[in-house]
Amino acid sequence: MSAENTTPPPNAAQIEYWNKGGGAAWSNYHDLLDRQLGPLGHEAMRVLDLKAGEAVLDIGCGCGQTTFELATRVGPTGSVTGVDISAPMLAIAEARAPHDGAGEIEFRLRDVQTDDLGIGRYDVAFSRFGVMFFSEPTVAFRNIHRALRPDGRLAFVCWQPFSSNPWMREPLEAVRHLLPPSEPPDPLAPGPFAFADPDRVRGILTDAGFTNIDIASFETTLGSGSVDETLAVTLRIGPLGRAVADQPERLPELAGPVRAVLERYLTSNGVQIPASAWIVRALGRQE
Ligand SMILES: C[S@@+](CC[C@H](N)C(=O)[O-])C[C@H]1O[C@@H](n2cnc3c(N)ncnc32)[C@H](O)[C@@H]1O
């Protein structure tokens, strides 16, 4: 009789989160999230300077908006592989209609840290907020590095610290007195702010074999459209969403103070709250 292997995979907690509560919230609100995050993903695509016919890896592609946009940019002779650990989010990605004139698209349920991504298959690796959740980031980026051709390029967008992101900080502060006290999160733990320190990011990429690392600040404003649309996302995604994920009955009580914050940022272009991200780029080898 063979002994059963009960060791959980290194990213077990994230796999559970993105296949259960987190994955469900992102799946339900993916249209509004795409509107909110679209411009930040476009900035990371812009610095990649994609060329027709290139093969692209979309890391943590989620519900697939960026995968389709990348496929449009590389055109019909190019291809994009979207990889993610979330089955429900990939199901949404697979159901999206392809854009005219886009390259070939495939989606794969893969853990970027532990699964085989192939060797030298991709010209480019990209991610919109999909690289901050690895238990061992250097291992994951070594795997990404191995999947790139020797002259491959990497670009991703990740968040600067919570304190530099009023769009997440101000709604949470407005309701903190209504929430149970909580310990400050470990800044190195997998999560939205794990790559907030650019020195840490530079060290991880260097150890993984990347060169010519450039980390640029991208300061912008964002929202999901109207106050109601942005409120729906703010109450369910990000630090506030996580804090109340298992208490949906509290949402009506929290909605008032959060709505008051969002109304202060209402413009003719919908809600627009300041946000700060890093646009990180690197090469597979020294140029
Ligand atoms: C914040 S969401 C971003 C999703 C998508 N890139 C977007 O911008 O809409 C983070 C994504 O990373 C994925 N992810 C987290 N850890 C991963 C891993 N080890 N391998 C592959 N995907 C992962 C999650 O399942 C989730 O879809």
TrEMBL record:
InterPro entries: Methyltransf_25 (IPR041698), SAM-dependent_MTases_sf (IPR029063). One of its GO terms (molecular function) is methyltransferase activity. GO terms for biological process: methylation. The keyword Methyltransferase applies. The keyword Protein biosynthesis does not apply. Coiled coil: none annotated. Pfam families: Methyltransf_25 (PF13649). This is Type 11 methyltransferase. It comes from Fimbriimonas ginsengisoli Gsoil 348.
